[in-house]
Amino acid sequence: MYRKLIIVLAIILLGLLAERLVFTSTDVKIEIDPPVLRASTSSELKIEVYRSNTLGFKTPMSSVELRFQIEEGSNLIEVFNESADGSVKIRSKGIEGEAIIGIYSLKSGLQLRKVFIKILPRDVAQNLETN
Predict the structure, then answer these.
(1) What are the structural domains, with CATH classification, of the chain?
(2) Is the pLDDT of residue 129 over 70?
(3) Contact present, 97 and 119 (Cβ < 8 Å)
């Protein structure tokens, strides 16, 4: 009798612990692929923003509602293909330099993070990609 009760309580405890570890968001993570842009009009990078859980993985059944805005360097980059799932593509305008993208929450209007984007000359960026 007590053995079955202990097993049931252990299963309930494990379920609550799993819910806390897996389904509770603790941070917002940003992935940038590739890490730098080339000074070419065909060079693009993708910024993906998602909520992460205690274990460091993407939180299941969670979404972020964001707006991306160019803070500095609007003459260097352009934002296109912004999607509702927290990702955006950035395209270089062919000029080297540095730009900053602000990431804002649609719900609160507050700035979550700033992303620094470096636009390198074509030959330097190609050497970085091969190494």
Answers:
(1) 24-130 (2.60.40.10)
(2) no
(3) yes
